[in-house]
């Protein structure tokens, strides 16, 4: 990433709260402070990472270091601050944009919940439909309906990039699904916790729910006219994920679930 990014301008436009959902962080809010586990360190307990929206800063108790929003992204994604700034600039609008939206956002004195913070994450606009995707059993219409497609560049390069949303429909990240049997089958951006999301939960309607093993299975089921299909994003299924599924079924009034 060689694009020049003005760090000072970036930190004016992008508030640290906005990155919580984008980075897939599972945090509890107490006033201006958010606390949760650090997905980069994977140690220090469930309060190892602290984010302070008032001070626009973070601190990792595990590594005993902290900094601003750029340093946070660098820490969680394992990249340089220059690359972290480029990621933020790409996802939250580039320096050429006017500052009107950023100023409006900064004046909102009521911070929105973490699930709302990722609304500025932009869909990838370079995904394409090609023979590799068609070979997975998907049509161009299905890919368009789901916002999925082959990624010719970026961290999902050479894979089927599938958007991941939270239950409210906020775009959180993309997963990269192998198209030619590559290993691992699914890849995710650094900092995103695949255990924290049920894929396609935002599309669930009342009635019977189907649980499959892979996001691709959800899309191929849709291809065949079958909806109300969800998937976990991990091979191992934790008790927390099962609780999430039960909560989803209760919220959406799903009377039963079938496993495939």
From TrEMBL:
* Positions of the UniProt region annotated as Disordered: 95-119
Entry GO CC: cytoplasm
Q: Which residues form the Zinc finger CHC2-type domain?
A: 8-95
Specify the domain of life of the species encoding this protein.
Bacteria
Which keywords, in A-to-Z order, does the entry hold? Metal-binding, Zinc, Zinc-finger
Q: Which GO terms describe its molecular function?
A: DNA binding; DNA-directed RNA polymerase activity; zinc ion binding
Q: Name one GO biological process term.
A: DNA replication, synthesis of primer
Q: Which InterPro entries match?
A: DNA_primase_Znf_CHC2, DnaG_primase, Znf_CHC2
Identify the PANTHER family for this entry.
DNA PRIMASE
The name under which this protein is listed is Zinc finger CHC2-type domain-containing protein
């Amino acid at each position: 990433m060689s694009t020049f990014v003005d760090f000072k301008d970036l930190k004016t436009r992008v508030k640290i709260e906005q990155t919580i959902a984008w980075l897939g962080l599972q945090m509890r809010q107490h006033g201006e402070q958010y606390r949760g586990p650090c997905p980069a360190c994977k140690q220090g307990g469930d309060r190892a990472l602290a984010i302070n929206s008032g001070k626009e800063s973070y601190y990792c108790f595990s590594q005993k270091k902290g900094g601003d929003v750029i340093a946070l992204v660098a820490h969680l994604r394992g990249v340089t601050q220059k690359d972290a700034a480029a990621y933020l600039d790409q996802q939250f609008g580039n320096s050429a944009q006017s500052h009107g939206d950023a100023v409006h956002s900064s004046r909102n004195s009521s911070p929105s919940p973490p699930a709302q913070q990722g609304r500025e994450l932009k869909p990838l606009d370079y995904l394409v439909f090609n023979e590799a995707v068609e070979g997975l059993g998907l049509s161009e219409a299905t890919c368009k309906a789901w916002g999925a497609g082959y990624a010719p560049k970026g961290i999902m390069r050479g894979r089927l990039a599938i958007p991941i949303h939270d239950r409210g429909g906020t775009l959180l990240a993309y997963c990269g699904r192998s198209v030619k049997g590559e290993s691992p089958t699914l890849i995710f951006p650094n900092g995103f916790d695949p255990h924290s999301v049920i894929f396609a939960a935002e599309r669930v309607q009342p009635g019977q729910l189907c649980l499959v093993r892979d996001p691709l299975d959800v899309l191929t089921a849709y291809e065949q006219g079958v909806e109300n299909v969800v998937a976990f994003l991990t091979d191992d299924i934790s008790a927390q994920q099962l609780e999430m599924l039960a909560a989803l079924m209760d919220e959406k009034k799903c009377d039963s679930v079938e496993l495939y």
